[in-house]
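REVIEWER CHECKLIST
Item 1: Sequence provided? yes
Item 2: Single chain? yes
Item 3: Sequence as submitted:
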Amino acid sequence: MTTDIPWDPSRKEFNPVSMCITHQGGMQFSAKTSTGFTIPIDAHAHLGGGGMIPNPIDYLFTSLGGCIGVKILLDLKDKGFVPEMLIIETHATRIQDLPATFDTVHHIITLKGSFDEETIARTLDRTMTLLCPVAVIFGKTSKMTWEFRLL
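Item 4: Structure as written out by the authors:
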């Protein structure tokens, strides 16, 4: 597998990331992105949060699934494919000790479209190990696996 990135330079993501997190009271915070978005954050209910807005782990896995989805679409588009449907399910188990991280992370990717299993397998391998920085981080800190289903 090649690690060359054949994309147009405008699609390469090598810029620094900046964000400002501000305590809002109680166990709530707000994150302001460098692009001006404000993201509400609350602690999980068992940690004193209200349970009405996402907690950091919710956002962590949202980022993981979103990054995987974007990179799958881009890689397939580069190969001339556009899926009719793409669903990413993620299931993770936590290490029952410190450091507080994840033991296993498993993804089930369901796609519908005109492509073959070999194309999807290559796309997912590149996505999970090279193209999606969030997945690459998870892969270095947990046992991350994936499977796909074509409809």
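Item 5: Key structural point noted by reviewer: The first strand starts at residue 19 and ends at 25.
Item 6: Recommendation: ____
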